[in-house]
Write a structure and sequence with these properties.
This protein is α/β, with parallel strands linked by helices. It has 18 helices and twelve strands. The two termini are 15 Å apart.
Protein backbone atom coordinates (compact mmCIF):
# COMPACT_ATOMS: atom_id res chain seq x y z
CA UNK A 1 0.00 0.00 0.00
CA UNK A 2 1.17 3.53 -0.78
CA UNK A 3 0.67 5.74 2.27
CA UNK A 4 1.28 9.40 3.09
CA UNK A 5 1.69 10.07 6.81
CA UNK A 6 1.29 13.78 7.65
CA UNK A 7 2.86 14.64 11.00
CA UNK A 8 3.36 18.02 12.72
CA UNK A 9 6.96 18.51 13.81
CA UNK A 10 7.96 19.93 17.19
CA UNK A 11 11.58 20.79 16.43
CA UNK A 12 13.94 18.84 18.67
CA UNK A 13 13.12 20.45 22.00
CA UNK A 14 10.98 17.99 23.89
CA UNK A 15 9.69 14.41 23.98
CA UNK A 16 6.85 14.47 21.44
CA UNK A 17 4.76 11.30 21.68
CA UNK A 18 2.96 11.90 18.38
CA UNK A 19 6.24 12.34 16.47
CA UNK A 20 7.81 9.22 18.01
CA UNK A 21 4.62 7.20 17.52
CA UNK A 22 4.42 8.09 13.83
CA UNK A 23 8.12 7.37 13.25
CA UNK A 24 7.87 3.89 14.76
CA UNK A 25 4.77 3.16 12.70
CA UNK A 26 6.32 4.41 9.44
CA UNK A 27 9.47 2.38 10.00
CA UNK A 28 7.48 -0.79 10.68
CA UNK A 29 5.14 -0.34 7.73
CA UNK A 30 8.14 0.13 5.45
CA UNK A 31 9.73 -3.05 6.80
CA UNK A 32 6.52 -4.88 5.88
CA UNK A 33 6.83 -3.78 2.26
CA UNK A 34 4.52 -0.77 2.20
CA UNK A 35 5.56 2.51 0.54
CA UNK A 36 5.23 5.15 3.22
CA UNK A 37 6.30 8.77 3.10
CA UNK A 38 6.34 10.89 6.22
CA UNK A 39 5.46 14.51 5.48
CA UNK A 40 6.40 17.05 8.20
CA UNK A 41 4.32 20.14 8.94
CA UNK A 42 5.20 23.36 10.79
CA UNK A 43 8.62 22.44 12.24
CA UNK A 44 11.38 19.89 11.57
CA UNK A 45 11.00 16.36 12.92
CA UNK A 46 14.07 15.11 14.76
CA UNK A 47 14.50 11.46 13.77
CA UNK A 48 14.61 8.95 16.61
CA UNK A 49 16.25 6.20 14.55
CA UNK A 50 18.61 6.08 11.56
CA UNK A 51 16.17 3.63 9.97
CA UNK A 52 13.58 6.39 9.49
CA UNK A 53 14.03 8.92 6.71
CA UNK A 54 12.05 11.94 5.57
CA UNK A 55 11.57 12.12 1.82
CA UNK A 56 9.46 15.26 1.83
CA UNK A 57 10.00 18.98 2.42
CA UNK A 58 8.40 20.79 5.34
CA UNK A 59 4.95 22.11 4.50
CA UNK A 60 3.10 24.84 6.36
CA UNK A 61 6.42 26.07 7.75
CA UNK A 62 5.85 27.65 11.13
CA UNK A 63 7.19 31.08 10.16
CA UNK A 64 5.11 31.26 6.98
CA UNK A 65 2.00 30.13 8.84
CA UNK A 66 2.54 32.95 11.33
CA UNK A 67 3.25 35.60 8.69
CA UNK A 68 0.28 34.59 6.57
CA UNK A 69 -1.94 34.74 9.64
CA UNK A 70 -0.77 38.22 10.64
CA UNK A 71 -0.13 39.99 7.32
CA UNK A 72 -2.21 39.77 4.17
CA UNK A 73 0.85 40.53 2.03
CA UNK A 74 2.37 37.13 2.84
CA UNK A 75 -0.74 35.32 1.63
CA UNK A 76 0.24 36.36 -1.91
CA UNK A 77 4.04 36.21 -1.92
CA UNK A 78 5.74 33.92 -4.49
CA UNK A 79 7.25 30.63 -3.44
CA UNK A 80 10.83 31.88 -3.68
CA UNK A 81 10.05 34.36 -0.91
CA UNK A 82 8.30 31.75 1.24
CA UNK A 83 11.19 29.32 0.85
CA UNK A 84 13.48 31.71 2.72
CA UNK A 85 11.30 31.27 5.81
CA UNK A 86 11.07 27.48 5.38
CA UNK A 87 14.77 26.82 5.94
CA UNK A 88 15.31 24.05 8.48
CA UNK A 89 17.87 26.08 10.41
CA UNK A 90 15.45 28.97 10.86
CA UNK A 91 12.55 26.70 11.80
CA UNK A 92 14.73 24.86 14.32
CA UNK A 93 15.59 28.17 15.99
CA UNK A 94 11.96 29.21 15.96
CA UNK A 95 10.90 25.91 17.53
CA UNK A 96 12.72 26.85 20.71
CA UNK A 97 10.08 29.56 21.17
CA UNK A 98 7.28 26.96 21.12
CA UNK A 99 4.64 27.68 23.72
CA UNK A 100 5.35 31.42 23.84
CA UNK A 101 2.32 32.45 21.77
CA UNK A 102 -0.80 33.88 23.43
CA UNK A 103 -4.11 32.03 23.62
CA UNK A 104 -5.53 34.52 21.15
CA UNK A 105 -2.78 33.95 18.56
CA UNK A 106 -3.00 30.19 19.03
CA UNK A 107 -6.77 30.17 18.77
CA UNK A 108 -6.95 32.41 15.70
CA UNK A 109 -4.30 30.40 13.85
CA UNK A 110 -5.94 27.07 14.72
CA UNK A 111 -9.28 28.34 13.43
CA UNK A 112 -7.65 29.55 10.22
CA UNK A 113 -5.94 26.19 9.66
CA UNK A 114 -9.21 24.34 10.18
CA UNK A 115 -10.83 26.49 7.49
CA UNK A 116 -8.50 24.88 4.98
CA UNK A 117 -8.88 26.38 1.52
CA UNK A 118 -10.78 29.32 3.06
CA UNK A 119 -8.14 30.02 5.69
CA UNK A 120 -5.23 32.44 5.64
CA UNK A 121 -2.80 29.62 4.80
CA UNK A 122 -4.66 28.49 1.65
CA UNK A 123 -1.57 28.74 -0.55
CA UNK A 124 0.24 26.31 1.80
CA UNK A 125 -2.53 23.78 1.20
CA UNK A 126 -2.19 24.34 -2.55
CA UNK A 127 1.55 23.67 -2.36
CA UNK A 128 0.98 20.43 -0.41
CA UNK A 129 -1.61 19.19 -2.90
CA UNK A 130 0.62 20.08 -5.86
CA UNK A 131 3.42 18.00 -4.37
CA UNK A 132 1.14 15.06 -3.62
CA UNK A 133 -0.42 15.28 -7.09
CA UNK A 134 2.75 14.25 -8.85
CA UNK A 135 2.34 10.76 -10.26
CA UNK A 136 5.26 9.40 -8.23
CA UNK A 137 3.82 10.83 -5.00
CA UNK A 138 0.13 10.03 -5.42
CA UNK A 139 -0.88 7.76 -2.49
CA UNK A 140 -3.55 5.13 -1.90
CA UNK A 141 -4.46 6.75 1.42
CA UNK A 142 -3.46 9.76 3.52
CA UNK A 143 -3.12 9.54 7.31
CA UNK A 144 -3.41 12.67 9.43
CA UNK A 145 -1.51 12.50 12.71
CA UNK A 146 -4.34 14.20 14.64
CA UNK A 147 -7.72 15.79 14.05
CA UNK A 148 -6.33 19.33 14.32
CA UNK A 149 -5.13 18.74 10.75
CA UNK A 150 -8.73 18.15 9.70
CA UNK A 151 -8.81 21.37 7.68
CA UNK A 152 -6.70 19.61 5.05
CA UNK A 153 -9.12 16.74 4.55
CA UNK A 154 -11.75 18.23 2.23
CA UNK A 155 -9.37 19.40 -0.49
CA UNK A 156 -7.11 16.34 -0.17
CA UNK A 157 -10.06 14.03 -0.79
CA UNK A 158 -11.59 16.15 -3.56
CA UNK A 159 -8.42 16.89 -5.50
CA UNK A 160 -6.49 13.65 -5.02
CA UNK A 161 -9.51 11.34 -4.91
CA UNK A 162 -8.05 9.27 -2.09
CA UNK A 163 -9.44 8.51 1.38
CA UNK A 164 -8.23 10.41 4.42
CA UNK A 165 -7.78 8.62 7.74
CA UNK A 166 -7.15 10.40 11.04
CA UNK A 167 -5.45 9.21 14.21
CA UNK A 168 -6.87 10.57 17.46
CA UNK A 169 -4.54 11.38 20.35
CA UNK A 170 -4.53 14.15 22.98
CA UNK A 171 -6.32 16.82 20.92
CA UNK A 172 -8.78 17.43 23.74
CA UNK A 173 -6.29 19.02 26.15
CA UNK A 174 -4.87 21.25 23.43
CA UNK A 175 -8.25 22.62 22.35
CA UNK A 176 -9.63 23.08 25.85
CA UNK A 177 -6.39 24.77 26.88
CA UNK A 178 -7.08 27.67 24.51
CA UNK A 179 -10.04 28.80 26.57
CA UNK A 180 -13.20 30.41 25.24
CA UNK A 181 -14.21 31.79 22.85
CA UNK A 182 -11.58 29.90 20.83
CA UNK A 183 -12.16 26.43 22.31
CA UNK A 184 -15.88 26.44 21.47
CA UNK A 185 -15.25 27.72 17.94
CA UNK A 186 -12.54 25.14 17.33
CA UNK A 187 -14.76 22.27 18.49
CA UNK A 188 -17.53 23.48 16.15
CA UNK A 189 -15.13 23.63 13.21
CA UNK A 190 -13.63 20.24 14.04
CA UNK A 191 -17.06 18.65 13.83
CA UNK A 192 -17.46 20.05 10.31
CA UNK A 193 -13.99 18.90 9.29
CA UNK A 194 -14.69 15.40 10.59
CA UNK A 195 -17.42 14.98 7.98
CA UNK A 196 -14.66 15.01 5.33
CA UNK A 197 -12.60 12.25 6.98
CA UNK A 198 -13.27 8.63 6.05
CA UNK A 199 -12.05 6.83 9.16
CA UNK A 200 -10.84 7.66 12.67
CA UNK A 201 -8.45 5.55 14.73
CA UNK A 202 -8.17 6.29 18.45
CA UNK A 203 -4.99 5.18 20.19
CA UNK A 204 -6.87 3.83 23.21
CA UNK A 205 -10.42 2.84 24.13
CA UNK A 206 -10.48 5.42 26.92
CA UNK A 207 -9.64 8.26 24.57
CA UNK A 208 -11.94 7.05 21.80
CA UNK A 209 -14.94 6.99 24.12
CA UNK A 210 -14.08 10.45 25.45
CA UNK A 211 -13.38 12.23 22.16
CA UNK A 212 -16.16 10.66 20.04
CA UNK A 213 -19.06 12.71 21.45
CA UNK A 214 -17.05 15.92 21.28
CA UNK A 215 -16.45 15.35 17.56
CA UNK A 216 -19.93 13.91 16.95
CA UNK A 217 -18.41 10.70 15.56
CA UNK A 218 -20.59 7.67 14.91
CA UNK A 219 -19.27 4.22 15.82
CA UNK A 220 -19.03 3.10 12.17
CA UNK A 221 -16.15 5.52 11.49
CA UNK A 222 -14.32 5.16 14.80
CA UNK A 223 -11.96 2.30 15.63
CA UNK A 224 -9.28 1.68 18.26
CA UNK A 225 -5.76 0.51 17.52
CA UNK A 226 -3.19 0.50 20.29
CA UNK A 227 -0.09 2.29 19.03
CA UNK A 228 2.73 -0.07 19.94
CA UNK A 229 6.50 0.30 20.07
CA UNK A 230 9.36 -1.54 18.41
CA UNK A 231 10.45 -4.03 21.05
CA UNK A 232 13.76 -4.81 19.43
CA UNK A 233 14.89 -1.30 20.42
CA UNK A 234 14.60 -2.08 24.14
CA UNK A 235 16.81 -4.44 26.11
CA UNK A 236 15.89 -4.89 29.79
CA UNK A 237 18.63 -4.82 32.41
CA UNK A 238 19.62 -8.20 33.83
CA UNK A 239 19.29 -6.89 37.39
CA UNK A 240 17.92 -3.79 39.13
CA UNK A 241 20.29 -0.85 39.64
CA UNK A 242 22.23 -0.84 42.92
CA UNK A 243 21.05 2.66 43.73
CA UNK A 244 17.25 3.19 43.83
CA UNK A 245 16.41 5.51 40.96
CA UNK A 246 13.16 7.19 39.94
CA UNK A 247 12.85 8.20 36.29
CA UNK A 248 10.73 10.90 34.69
CA UNK A 249 10.32 10.83 30.89
CA UNK A 250 8.15 13.52 29.37
CA UNK A 251 8.22 17.20 28.57
CA UNK A 252 9.48 19.03 31.67
CA UNK A 253 6.37 21.08 32.37
CA UNK A 254 3.56 21.37 34.94
CA UNK A 255 0.99 19.44 32.88
CA UNK A 256 3.18 16.35 32.95
CA UNK A 257 3.36 16.57 36.73
CA UNK A 258 7.06 17.21 37.23
CA UNK A 259 6.30 19.55 40.13
CA UNK A 260 4.31 16.78 41.82
CA UNK A 261 7.16 14.32 41.37
CA UNK A 262 9.69 16.77 42.80
CA UNK A 263 7.57 17.20 45.93
CA UNK A 264 7.27 13.42 46.10
CA UNK A 265 11.03 13.00 45.85
CA UNK A 266 11.64 15.52 48.64
CA UNK A 267 9.27 13.53 50.87
CA UNK A 268 11.03 10.25 50.02
CA UNK A 269 14.44 11.68 50.87
CA UNK A 270 13.23 12.31 54.43
CA UNK A 271 13.18 8.53 54.93
CA UNK A 272 16.64 7.49 56.26
CA UNK A 273 16.34 4.19 54.38
CA UNK A 274 16.12 6.14 51.10
CA UNK A 275 18.89 8.66 51.64
CA UNK A 276 20.75 7.21 48.63
CA UNK A 277 17.65 7.48 46.38
CA UNK A 278 18.10 9.57 43.25
CA UNK A 279 15.91 10.97 40.48
CA UNK A 280 16.69 11.39 36.80
CA UNK A 281 14.60 13.72 34.64
CA UNK A 282 14.50 13.37 30.87
CA UNK A 283 12.28 14.70 28.10
CA UNK A 284 13.31 18.18 27.06
CA UNK A 285 11.53 21.51 27.28
CA UNK A 286 10.48 24.65 25.40
CA UNK A 287 11.46 28.19 26.27
CA UNK A 288 8.05 28.63 27.89
CA UNK A 289 9.00 25.96 30.46
CA UNK A 290 12.14 27.76 31.67
CA UNK A 291 10.52 29.78 34.53
CA UNK A 292 8.87 26.60 35.84
CA UNK A 293 12.17 24.71 35.74
CA UNK A 294 13.99 27.51 37.57
CA UNK A 295 11.41 27.21 40.34
CA UNK A 296 11.86 23.43 40.39
CA UNK A 297 15.64 23.73 40.76
CA UNK A 298 15.29 26.29 43.57
CA UNK A 299 12.89 23.95 45.35
CA UNK A 300 15.35 21.06 45.11
CA UNK A 301 18.23 23.22 46.34
CA UNK A 302 16.21 24.54 49.26
CA UNK A 303 15.38 20.96 50.29
CA UNK A 304 19.06 20.02 50.04
CA UNK A 305 18.51 17.24 47.49
CA UNK A 306 19.60 18.93 44.25
CA UNK A 307 22.78 16.83 44.07
CA UNK A 308 20.63 13.68 43.87
CA UNK A 309 18.67 14.92 40.84
CA UNK A 310 20.01 14.75 37.30
CA UNK A 311 18.45 16.59 34.35
CA UNK A 312 19.35 14.76 31.14
CA UNK A 313 19.54 16.99 28.04
CA UNK A 314 19.51 14.16 25.46
CA UNK A 315 16.13 12.45 25.09
CA UNK A 316 16.13 11.01 21.57
CA UNK A 317 17.47 7.81 20.07
CA UNK A 318 19.62 5.14 21.64
CA UNK A 319 20.71 7.31 24.57
CA UNK A 320 17.13 7.40 25.88
CA UNK A 321 16.64 3.68 25.50
CA UNK A 322 19.92 2.87 27.28
CA UNK A 323 19.06 5.31 30.07
CA UNK A 324 15.85 3.42 30.82
CA UNK A 325 17.90 0.41 31.96
CA UNK A 326 19.34 2.48 34.83
CA UNK A 327 15.94 3.06 36.45
CA UNK A 328 14.23 1.27 39.32
CA UNK A 329 10.82 2.74 38.53
CA UNK A 330 9.30 5.30 36.17
CA UNK A 331 6.85 7.88 37.55
CA UNK A 332 5.12 10.62 35.55
CA UNK A 333 2.24 12.15 37.56
CA UNK A 334 0.27 13.34 34.52
CA UNK A 335 -2.37 15.97 35.23
CA UNK A 336 -4.17 15.59 31.89
CA UNK A 337 -6.14 12.63 30.56
CA UNK A 338 -3.35 11.02 28.54
CA UNK A 339 -4.56 9.16 25.46
CA UNK A 340 -1.37 7.24 24.72
CA UNK A 341 1.34 7.19 27.40
CA UNK A 342 4.36 6.35 25.25
CA UNK A 343 6.76 6.81 28.17
CA UNK A 344 4.83 4.13 30.09
CA UNK A 345 5.20 1.70 27.19
CA UNK A 346 8.87 2.46 26.74
CA UNK A 347 9.62 1.96 30.42
CA UNK A 348 7.85 -1.40 30.57
CA UNK A 349 9.49 -2.53 27.33
CA UNK A 350 12.80 -1.90 29.10
CA UNK A 351 11.64 -3.91 32.11
CA UNK A 352 10.97 -0.85 34.29
CA UNK A 353 7.62 -0.72 36.13
CA UNK A 354 5.54 2.45 36.12
CA UNK A 355 3.64 4.42 38.76
CA UNK A 356 0.95 6.63 37.22
CA UNK A 357 -2.31 8.35 38.18
CA UNK A 358 -5.74 6.86 37.59
CA UNK A 359 -6.56 8.90 34.50
CA UNK A 360 -6.63 8.50 30.72
CA UNK A 361 -5.16 5.37 29.24
CA UNK A 362 -3.24 4.34 32.35
CA UNK A 363 -5.85 2.06 33.99
CA UNK A 364 -6.43 0.43 30.59
CA UNK A 365 -2.68 0.07 30.03
CA UNK A 366 -1.88 -1.43 33.44
CA UNK A 367 -4.80 -3.85 33.16
CA UNK A 368 -3.31 -5.19 29.93
CA UNK A 369 0.37 -5.27 30.95
CA UNK A 370 0.36 -5.69 34.72
CA UNK A 371 3.63 -3.77 34.81
CA UNK A 372 2.93 -1.03 37.29
CA UNK A 373 0.80 0.60 39.94
CA UNK A 374 -2.14 2.97 39.53
CA UNK A 375 -2.38 5.80 42.05
CA UNK A 376 -5.92 6.89 42.88
CA UNK A 377 -5.08 10.43 44.02
CA UNK A 378 -2.53 12.61 42.26
CA UNK A 379 -0.72 13.96 45.32
CA UNK A 380 2.91 13.81 46.53
CA UNK A 381 1.94 11.99 49.74
CA UNK A 382 0.15 9.23 47.86
CA UNK A 383 2.91 8.84 45.27
CA UNK A 384 5.54 8.71 48.02
CA UNK A 385 3.60 5.99 49.85
CA UNK A 386 3.53 3.86 46.69
CA UNK A 387 7.10 4.53 45.57
CA UNK A 388 8.86 3.99 48.90
CA UNK A 389 8.36 0.19 49.15
CA UNK A 390 9.14 -0.21 45.44
CA UNK A 391 12.46 1.59 45.86
CA UNK A 392 13.33 -0.40 48.99
CA UNK A 393 12.46 -3.84 47.58
CA UNK A 394 14.29 -3.52 44.28
CA UNK A 395 14.10 -7.23 43.39
CA UNK A 396 10.29 -7.36 43.67
CA UNK A 397 10.11 -4.16 41.67
CA UNK A 398 12.40 -5.66 39.03
CA UNK A 399 10.07 -8.68 38.73
CA UNK A 400 7.11 -6.33 38.27
CA UNK A 401 9.04 -4.68 35.44
CA UNK A 402 9.62 -8.03 33.79
CA UNK A 403 5.89 -8.70 33.92
CA UNK A 404 5.33 -5.36 32.22
CA UNK A 405 7.79 -6.31 29.48
CA UNK A 406 5.75 -9.44 28.74
CA UNK A 407 2.53 -7.42 28.70
CA UNK A 408 3.95 -4.89 26.27
CA UNK A 409 5.16 -7.72 24.05
CA UNK A 410 1.67 -9.20 23.93
CA UNK A 411 -0.43 -6.08 23.54
CA UNK A 412 1.72 -3.16 22.36
CA UNK A 413 4.11 -4.53 19.77
CA UNK A 414 4.31 -2.13 16.82
CA UNK A 415 4.27 -5.08 14.40
CA UNK A 416 0.78 -5.85 15.64
CA UNK A 417 -0.16 -2.16 15.41
CA UNK A 418 0.97 -2.00 11.78
CA UNK A 419 -1.01 -5.11 10.85
CA UNK A 420 -4.14 -3.73 12.53
CA UNK A 421 -3.68 -0.39 10.79
CA UNK A 422 -3.38 -1.98 7.33
CA UNK A 423 -6.58 -3.93 7.99
CA UNK A 424 -8.37 -0.71 8.90
CA UNK A 425 -6.99 1.19 5.93
CA UNK A 426 -8.25 -1.59 3.69
CA UNK A 427 -11.80 -0.66 4.72
CA UNK A 428 -11.56 2.72 2.98
CA UNK A 429 -8.95 2.36 0.21
CA UNK A 430 -10.68 2.46 -3.16
CA UNK A 431 -13.88 3.99 -1.75
CA UNK A 432 -13.00 7.68 -1.83
Amino acid sequence: MKIIQITPGSGDNFYCENCLRDQALVRTLRSQGHQVKMVPLYLPIKLDSPEVSLDAPIFYGGVNVYLQQKLGLFRKTPRWVDSVFDSRSLLTRVSKKAGMTSSRELGETTLSMLRGEDGNQAKELERLIDWLSRDMERPDVIILSNVLLGGLASELRRRLKVPVVCLLQDEEAFVDGMGDPYSSEVWDLLKKCCKEIDLFIAVSKAYGSRIAPRLALDENRLHTAYMGIDLKDYEPADAPPDRPTIGFLSRMCPNRGLDTLVETFILLKQNPALENCRMQICGGKSQADEPFLRDIRRQLEKAGVADDVLFLPEFLGENRRQWLKDLTVMCVPEKEEAAYGLFAMEAQAAGVPIVVPKIGIFPELIELTGGGVIVAFNSPLVFAAVLAPMLLDRHSTHRLGQKGRMGITEHFNVEKTAANLIDLLGKVVGKA
